[in-house]
Amino acid sequence: MDRMNRLRDVMGERGVEHLWVEASVGFHYLTGHKPISVERTMGLLVSRAGRTKLVTPAMHAEELVGIADEVFDWTDSTGPETATAAVLEDVDVLHVQGSLLASAWYALADAKPGLRLALDPGCVASLREHKDSHELEALRSAAALADETALWIATLDVTTHTERSLRGAIQARFLGLGPMPWEPLVATGANASMPHYEGGDSPIAPDRPLLCDFGAATDGYWSDITRVFFPQSTAPEVERAYETVCAAYDAALAVLAPGVPCGEVDAAARKVITDAGMGDAFIHRTGHGVGLEIHEPPYLHGGNESPLEVGHVFSIEPGVYFPGRFGLRFENVIYMGDNGAEELNRAPRMLRLG
Amino acid sequence: MDRMNRLRDVMGERGVEHLWVEASVGFHYLTGHKPISVERTMGLLVSRAGRTKLVTPAMHAEELVGIADEVFDWTDSTGPETATAAVLEDVDVLHVQGSLLASAWYALADAKPGLRLALDPGCVASLREHKDSHELEALRSAAALADETALWIATLDVTTHTERSLRGAIQARFLGLGPMPWEPLVATGANASMPHYEGGDSPIAPDRPLLCDFGAATDGYWSDITRVFFPQSTAPEVERAYETVCAAYDAALAVLAPGVPCGEVDAAARKVITDAGMGDAFIHRTGHGVGLEIHEPPYLHGGNESPLEVGHVFSIEPGVYFPGRFGLRFENVIYMGDNGAEELNRAPRMLRLG
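ok -> structure tokens follow
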């Protein structure tokens, strides 16, 4: 498989001889198989110069035929220890993904006394950061469904909803269209002043801004959009703050180019908000990568010197938060292409409560 | 908080001085706060004899007021390293939960050179295993909604559905009722011979058994039920196999009592299926704990000598799988009470396709 060969190339460049890819999105990315997240030991040993070896509960063997050169299965009566030890027989240093659970980390350490474990220096992540055309198509489709859902929210009579019931309605709409949603954030009025407030039993106030942050996966690839839905009349200070947030978004978009450090994108957005006197209210980073995970590299925050590269897909989402008063955020997902940045989301900036 | 005090007692019994509880269901259990799963360092240091210390991104500080004696917050411009090092100042040995990500494990190790990290010997898990009356009520409610959904599936015209569309319909139904569902498994005909087959684009065959495994969370506590929906007429070998699976379930239920080793429950179910000549087709364990996680301790599998205890909540779900032919499973969630076992699920054993 092409991705497996490219992984071996990257392992060579980064001095990684043996990599353990447990049941995870990395496993999904490399094998095409979405593993069910369970407590049973499952993983793929990828060796730069050797055969791939799969450890799996026997119950999954039928589903995983063909993804590795050798299969070491185990049952509850044998336990996973023997299979794991067999796979690690010729391994002295094993790199593991950041997503590995500590329980599995200690199980690997116990399976082979003297084994040295180390953190994967981004071998799998560096492949996943660069989206190919198939992945980009899935991300475009996911973004288009999120846009449609934003427009649909603007048609609702929100006075029939609490934050919680609207969260359910957004998810049900995605499921009706096909993709699996993540749990939306829905915040009415001052609740939006907490950037990750999920939503509670507050009735949605038709005369206050309504912040919705939501998305869903198409073929495993996520969308992530935030829109604020405004009442017909808004306080001048809220209007001005929203104009500032949108200007910060535009400033970030304007500096996007391959080779630009991620931190500079954050700085461009932050400067606009700081210059408007609201710097203290922009309390999070400007964006994060989006792909098989809703949050993944690259991270667009101050101090990140890593450059943007062609194939990166990430959010830009400046926001301002005034505790107890109001909160605003504007978020689209962006593709960094050869010919500049492409906004995958197209929903209007100004949406009104229906 | 009562749970925090009980945790300190257990830490004393098990010789744990300092425990790190990262943003996780354990954190939710101890603090009542459901942390959003993000890439930012967040966690609670619980010391047997000292003050609790929270490391959190500053953006979450408003939401987390009051859960720890001291708060060490950080921003993207400071990074989490200083806050983490300050919290670990007096710590020599730090126990971590099995759910901690390796990326966070290495971040803790890097924050304090010489720090010894070890796996939590089940301090948090041992509390979480014993459900209190409030938790039991949530689990009962979750189970009742799963039962209703099973009856609802039996009313559907499945010929209008593929496996995938039925998965979405089941989720949408839960969302309409309130709780957040996990992704159901839906398998028509021979697809059910893979025990964790999720469901694909196969149209649902009205003349073949349909296996559905699903559930949803009420106040964070999950349900988990499997029912097979049968056509009006079923092959005799399938009928006989289903009778065997149900008899295995009954045999497991009959041995449940506080003090009985988990492995004996598995053995009781397995004996029935083995005696019927289908032992090789029962390729998974008999059950797993259910609570804030869909799979959690106790695990009911061969070789597990840990005893059942009052307060345990777990599935019993024997099944048989004949590759390419058919698969059957019957699953309820059970509460181990003072006065014996209580089946939280009440949906009928024999459900027919509508």
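The first helix of chain A runs from residue 2 to 14.
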